Amino acid sequence: MINMFSYTGYYSSWFIFVLPAILFATYAQMKISSSYKKYSKIPSKSGLTGAQVARYILDKNGLNEVRIEQVRGVLTDHYDPRARVLRLSPEVYSGSSIASVSVASHEVGHAIQHQDGYFPLILRNTIAPIAMFGSNLVWIFIILGFIFSPFFINLGIALFIAAVLFQIVTLPVEFNASRRALQQLENGIISRDQIDQAESMLKAAALTYVAATLVAISELLRLLAITNRRR
Length: 231
Fold this sequence. Notes:
mainly alpha; three-stranded mixed beta sheet; 8 helices; elongated; disordered N terminus; membrane; transmembrane; transmembrane helix
C-alpha cells in the first residue's frame, strides 16, 4: 500500500487538503450542538410543539397528505419525498422550544420544495444514488487502478465527483428550506422577537452542510493529488 500511494504523498495531501476541512467540520458540529442546546431551553411563546407547527404549516400549504412520524435519535429529523412523510426526532416532535419549532419548520420547508418542484431538490434526489455508490466504493476503484489500469482510477474519481456535486447541490436546498421555514414562522407562529433566535438556530444547522461540502471537496482534491502520480 505504501509503495502504491507513496507514503509522504498520501499523508501530506491529507494534512494539506483534508485536515483544515475536518477542523472546520468539527467547529460546525460544536456550533449546532451548542445552538440546539441553547435554544432547546427557550420556549416558543406560541406553546405549540414541533409536530403541531409542522402540521399547521403543511395543512396551510395544501400538504394535508404528508404524514408526520416520530423517529428515534437526536437531530435525525428529515422529510422523505418518496413516502411523503415528515419524520421528527422525539425532542423536536414533542418539544415546544425555539429549537423544536425551527427544526420542524425547516423540514416542512423541504416538503414545500417537493410540492413546488424546486429544481435543486429534484437534482439532489437524482444524484443521490450515484453519490452514495461513489462515496462508498471510490477507494476500491482507486486501488484497482493502481494494481490493474488507470481506467479504474478515472472511474472512481468520476463517481466521487458525483458525491461532491451532491454536497454542493445540497447547499441551496438547505438554505432555501430555512428561508421558507422563517417565512412560515413569521406568520404568527412565533413572536417577532423570537424570529432572530430561530434564524440563529437555522444558520448554525446550515453551517454543518457547508462543512460537509468543504470536506467532500478537500477529499476530491486529495484524491486527485494522489492519483495524479499514477496516471
